[in-house]
């Protein structure tokens, strides 16, 4: 009985979070998006890659205010992937990119911006927006590194559960 109640509470909380995130989306507008930094490392020998792909995602969210009192949401999304070679458990390929997304809070909006909702908005709105750029970067960079191009699936929040970052490893296509 306690498990069902706990699960019902979690579901209700997610629905409330989704409503709050949807409400926040009406209060902001994308101002800018760009890549801030990137890194790609490959082992000295052309590695034979196993199917062990690790996807890492980190989202930093902040509310910023300029001297004129204008507010914006600032997100730094760092996405990385590691491919492990078949001969060792050490990463044979490591690719990482950090993207910045800035959302302007609409003029005259003085409403509260709870950190939990700002962070959830980053997962729900920013991550799907940036994913195609990350996907292209990972694929072209792996090809330039002389390894089999890494193909990430298109972002589908409905299938992978955008509220749980640890499920993102499902977004890597399996090679035959």
Characterise the protein shown here.
The chain is an alpha+beta fold and 176 residues long. It has 3 helices and 4 strands. The chain has one domain (2-171): Bacterial Protein-export protein SecB (Roll), CATH 3.10.420.10. It has helices at 2-25, 115-144, 157-160, and strands at 28-42, 49-65, 71-85, 91-105. Strands 1-4-3-2 form a 4-stranded antiparallel beta sheet. Strand 3 (71-85) and strand 4 (91-105) form a beta hairpin. Helix 1 packs across helix 2 (115-144).
Topology:
Blueprint (H helix, E strand, L loop, with lengths): L1 H24 L2 E15 L6 E17 L5 E15 L5 E15 L9 H30 L12 H4 L16
Antiparallel strand pairs: 1-4, 2-3, 3-4
Rounded to the nearest angstrom, the distance between the terminal CA atoms is 44 Å
| Tally of discrete structural domains | 1
SSE run: HEEEEHH
Identify the CATH homologous superfamily. SecB-like
Instruction: Round the mean pLDDT to the nearest integer and report it.
Output: 79
Question: How many β-strand runs?
Answer: 4
Net shape: elongated
Helix content: 25-40%
Major β-sheet annotation = 4 strands, antiparallel
Q: What is the C-alpha radius of gyration, as a whole number of Å?
A: 19 Å
Question: Looking across the biggest beta sheet, what order are the strands in?
Answer: 1-4-3-2
Task: Indicate the low-confidence ranges by residue numbers.
Answer: 1-13, 159-176
Give the class-level CATH name.
Alpha Beta
């Amino acid at each position: 009985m306690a498990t069902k109640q706990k699960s019902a509470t979690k579901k209700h909380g997610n629905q409330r979070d989704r409503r709050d995130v949807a409400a926040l989306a009406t209060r902001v507008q994308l101002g800018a998006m760009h890549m801030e930094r990137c890194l790609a490392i490959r082992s000295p020998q052309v590695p034979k890659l196993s199917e062990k792909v690790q996807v890492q995602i980190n989202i930093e969210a902040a509310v910023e205010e300029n001297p004129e009192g204008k507010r914006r949401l600032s997100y730094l999304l760092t996405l990385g992937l590691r491919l492990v070679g078949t001969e060792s458990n050490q990463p044979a390929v490591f690719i990482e990119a950090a993207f910045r997304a800035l959302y302007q809070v609409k003029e005259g909006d003085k409403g509260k911006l709870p950190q939990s909702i700002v962070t959830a908005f980053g997962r729900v709105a920013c991550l799907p927006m940036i994913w195609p750029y990350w996907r292209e970067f990972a694929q072209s960079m792996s090809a330039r590194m002389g390894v089999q191009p890494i193909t990430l699936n298109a972002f589908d929040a409905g299938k992978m559960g955008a509220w749980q970052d640890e499920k993102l490893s499902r977004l890597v296509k399996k090679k035959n």
